[in-house]
Design goal:
- By secondary structure, the chain is an alpha/beta fold.
- It contains ten helices and eight strands.
- α5 crosses α10 and α6 packs across α7.
- The protein is elongated and about 70 Å long.
- The mean pLDDT is about 95.
- Bound molecules: NADPH dihydro-nicotinamide-adenine-dinucleotide phosphate and (2S)-3,4-dihydro-2H-pyrrole-2-carboxylic acid (A1CAB).
- It comes from Yoonia algicola.
- Its EC number is 1.5.1.2.
Length: about 260
């Protein structure tokens, strides 16, 4: 496919890196300041530099607040049979359609783990999208990790709060965990190794186990042992559950404000 990427910042750039490594599609990036692009990518600074080219996919990866200003310049560059794909948080199909008209539009919500090919994305296709168009974009997103198709846009906003914003929460939890290990006397590098290897190993063990997370937690918690002493603090007054629920609710509410 011939794909135009509008905006090549942190998220668009991470996905582009995976796509160019696969080498299956042709990419043009429209971004006034993009640099360090792979050799195979064509770069333009603005829509007028595109001349009369038309694309199979126009992928919108600019900030939600810029879409109304920037997207009108690109509304005409999609082939009749093409697909608009937006990764912008919140921005609804209806808002996009106000700019590009009654077109095949998909909302994809990726996450930053795409940087290492381990992203997880949600995908919603409006009813103008054919099964073939959906299949093509699912295959494209699969090249950045895993793609989960959802039935409605609200699911995309909910998924944004869980996995789209998820790396932000996880980076913060890791920072705090490493800081706590340092406070216990480990140097920074050792603390990072202990925490990162504990987290990746535990996630993989959970993924491969048939036990529930509660059963797995209990399986490593000796009666009156060290883990129980730690968990008594971590689980005190359900603070962790309450905090994670309010964290996800706040992100979901913000997605609604960006519609
Ligand atoms: N970051 C993340 O983890 C995720 C982000 N998203 C979504 O991805 C989108 C992009 O986010 P993110 O990559 O973080 O943001 P960035 O600011 O890193 O990327 C946006 C890019 O668009 C460029 N840009 C600015 N003006 C224009 C223009 N007129 N035409 C074309 N490009 C332009 C910016 O250039 P400059 O920097 O010079 O202004 C920048 O390179 C957002 O809609 C966000 O909701 C979705 C999931 C996860
Ligand atoms: O913070 C944001 O709004 C974007 C969308 C999901 C992750 N980053």
């Amino acid at each position: 496919m011939n794909i135009l990427l509008i905006g090549c910042g942190k998220m668009g750039g991470a996905m582009l890196r995976q796509w160019t490594a696969h080498g299956e599609h042709s990419f043009t990036v429209a971004d006034p300041a993009a640099n360090d692009l792979p050799d195979s990518v064509t770069h333009v600074s603005k829509a007028t530099d595109l001349s009369s080219q038309e694309f199979d996919v126009v992928l919108i990866a600019i900030k939600p607040q810029m879409i109304a200003d920037v997207l009108p310049d690109y509304a005409h560059v999609l082939k009749e049979s093409g697909t608009f794909v937006s990764i912008a948080a919140g921005t609804s199909v209806a808002s996009l359609a106000k700019v590009v008209g009654d077109a095949a539009i998909m909302r994809v919500m990726p996450n930053m783990a795409a940087l290492v090919g381990m992203g997880v994305s949600g995908l919603y296709a409006n009813d103008r999208c054919t099964p073939q168009q959906t299949q093509d974009i699912v295959a494209l997103i699969d090249q950045t990790g895993t793609c989960i198709a959802v039935e409605n846009e609200d699911q995309i906003d909910r998924l944004t709060a869980v996995s789209g914003s998820g790396p932000g929460y996880v980076f913060e939890i890791l920072r705090s965990y490493v800081a706590a290990a340092e406070a216990l006397g480990f140097d920074h590098e050792t603390a990072r190794t202990l925490v990162f290897d504990t987290v990746t190993g535990t996630v993989e063990a959970a993924r491969q186990s048939e036990l529930t997370l509660e059963e797995l937690r209990n399986s490593v918690t000796s009666k009156n042992g060290t883990t129980q002493a730690g968990l008594n603090e971590l689980m005190r007054d359900d603070v962790l559950d309450t905090l994670l629920q309010s964290t996800l609710q706040a992100a979901y509410a913000r997605a609604g404000e960006l519609r």
